[in-house]
């Protein structure tokens, strides 16, 4: 069975988003885990791509998924910044 690019894209998006949601719901991950944020960012990014290349473009899904992906990347940045601050010794003057 040969899968086309759109099918693979959709499968990656679905697996990533559902895995993130399932692991969050089961208490295996929290919003403070890189894994959760990466699953959301990647899944939403692939769905945004899928909505963008579909003719005609599905603008509602595209915008939703772009925003969802950006929120995921913000979560990744927030975790990185928090961990970096915890590892950096405080300056004493």
From TrEMBL:
Pfam families, per database record: CBU_0592
Claim: Ribosomal protein is one of the keywords in the record: no
Tell me which domain of life the UniProt entry assigns to the organism this sequence originates from. Answer: Bacteria
Membrane spanning residue stretches:
6-27, 34-53, 59-77
Cross-referenced InterPro entries, in alphabetical order?
CBU_0592-like
Keywords, ordered alphabetically: Membrane, Transmembrane, Transmembrane helix
Name all CBU-0592-like domain ranges.
7-83
This chain's protein is named Transporter
> Which species is this UniProt entry from?
Corynebacterium frankenforstense DSM 45800
């Amino acid at each position: 069975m040969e899968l086309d690019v759109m099918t693979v894209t959709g499968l990656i998006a679905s697996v990533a988003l559902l895995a993130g949601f399932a692991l969050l719901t089961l208490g295996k991950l929290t919003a403070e885990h890189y894994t959760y944020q990466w699953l959301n960012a990647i899944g939403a990014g692939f769905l945004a791509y899928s909505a963008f290349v579909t003719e005609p473009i599905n603008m509602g899904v595209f915008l939703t998924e772009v925003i969802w992906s950006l929120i995921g990347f913000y979560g990744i940045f927030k975790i990185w910044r928090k961990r970096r601050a915890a590892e950096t010794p405080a300056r004493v003057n």
